[in-house]
Amino acid sequence: MKKHHYIAILAGSLLALTSCSNDDKTPDTDPGTVTNPVETTKPNTAYTPAFSGQTRINGVQTNTPYEGKVITSALVAPWGVKTLPDGRLLVTEKAGSFRIVTKEGVVSAPITGAPAVNAAGQGGLLGLVLDPDFATNRMIFWVFSEASTGGNQTSVAKGRLSNDEKTIEGAVVIYRANPANPSTLHYGGRILFDKTGNLIVSTGERSVLETRPLAQSVSTGLGKIVRITKEGQPASGNPTFSQTGALPELYSIGQRNPQGLALHPGTGEVWESEHGPRGGDEINRINPGKNYGWPTITYGIEYSGEKIGAGIQKQDGLEQPVYYWDPVVSPSGMTFYTGNRVPEWENNLFIGSLSAKHIVRLAIRDNKVIGEERLLAGEGQRFRDVTQGSDGALYAVTDEGRLYKIDKK
Known about the structure:
By secondary structure, this protein is mainly beta. The chain contains two helices and 25 strands. The chain has one domain: Neuraminidase.
């Protein structure tokens, strides 16, 4: 088939999808020019997706001119970024420091007062979120890897940013995901507030074979999405898991290493990005009380090439990802775009890609991915987190220490 005929067919298919009514009742927007799928590399497996468009969806290309500008390169392994009310950016650095960056790129001295982190391996000072009432109470909540008896844990702390912005006052740990394990991998580590004012936290299953099955255990906090109050207690209205010993803070189970969380701007639902093994990185729409399958089902394989468990991708009672990648992109922090600077991006999901070194843009309609684009792919950076600024632009941090502003030209 000639290329222009193929593109025309893709465009017609995409138009049909975008003309459907939306679950979230938001108006349809043109996601841009349709292209061939962005992924052209051979997959690791011959696994069959559960539905059309679950992987290797059509590409889309933003038509509005945009650019990514480096604001600073002076950060050291930043992990999380959030916007302060005045437009400056609060950043976590893996080794344990908070810093504030102005929109002109001036980086503050380290902010002291946070509990010590174990920054070995994938650990450190991880995701953060501002209290919805930050403008008056100056409270910050964050996730970190904490050394404890028996190993390391994914822990959640809170504290007040001092008026002089030099320290975190009254820092206290409010939640720990048990059990501890000596592994320094798969902490998960993102945190956000849901529409009810409770905290949503992602925890990893810590990677090693002894803890991997605990993602399926409702009596542990590993490999989960948990929902807690500002005091670290189980939030009211959490789902009830029927198995014996189920922890009341659990919101969903069966996660591997979820490094991204975002609230859908229309529905308020929690969406999650999750690292797969060799293949099988996922985007999930998190429904309370559901089981997302790891390690029983997966679209990936062991790094050795062996199948994982029974080598199955579907099972009754286990949720399918909205989207998956094979080969992996290593998805990390993410956000939905609610600005109006670039119309094609409205309600699209933007995800930092570590190993594939770009920012993923997923156009979504009716909770299904209808197009994928790769932004800033030529920068050679491991994009760790993405957030939207008070100015409507996107801001992203990279493992290499850069902070980018991504906006209309």
